[in-house]
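Backbone-to-sequence.
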C-alpha cells in the first residue's frame, strides 16, 4: 500500500513527516532536527503501529511511503542539489529561490509546478547517465 507522507519544516526549525492517511489504523508522525531524523522517527512510529495491529490479530499489508516535500525540507534532505543551479534550470530567479528555501518567502503553486518539472527532468537525466 502506498502512503503519501508530507515532509515540511516547522516554524521552530524542526522537520516533520506526517502520513496523509491512517496506517494500521492510526496516523503517523515523525519529527527531528533534520529530515533524516524525522524519517527515522516516522519509521519508529510505523513499527509501533504495526506491533499494535498484529496484537489485534490483524495482518498488516506492506507499506511504501511516497514523500512530498516543501522546499526547505527538500533542499535540506537532498543537499547534493545546488539551489541556485536548480533555480536557473527551472527558470526561477535564484535570489528568490534562496528566499523560498530559507523560509523568508513562500513559493506559490506555479513555482512548485516549475520545480516539480525541473526535478523530474533531473531524475530522467540521472537515470540515463552512466560512467
Amino acid at each position: 500500500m502506498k502512503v503519501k507522507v508530507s515532509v515540511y519544516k516547522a516554524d521552530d526549525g524542526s522537520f516533520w513527516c506526517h502520513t496523509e492517511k491512517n496506517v494500521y489504523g492510526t496516523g503517523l508522525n515523525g519529527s527531528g532536527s533534520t529530515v533524516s531524523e524525522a524519517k527515522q522517527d516516522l519509521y519508529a512510529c510505523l513499527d509501533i503501529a504495526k506491533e499494535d495491529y498484529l496484537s489485534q490479530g490483524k495482518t498488516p499489508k506492506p507499506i511504501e511511503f511516497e514523500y512530498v516535500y516543501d522546499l526547505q525540507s527538500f533542499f535540506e534532505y537532498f543537499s547534493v542539489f545546488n539551489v541556485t543551479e536548480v533555480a536557473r534550470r527551472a527558470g526561477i530567479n535564484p535570489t528568490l529561490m534562496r528566499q523560498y528555501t530559507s523560509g523568508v518567502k513562500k513559493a506559490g503553486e506555479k513555482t512548485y509546478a516549475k520545480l516539480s518539472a525541473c526535478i523530474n527532468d533531473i531524475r530522467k537525466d540521472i537515470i540515463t547517465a552512466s560512467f
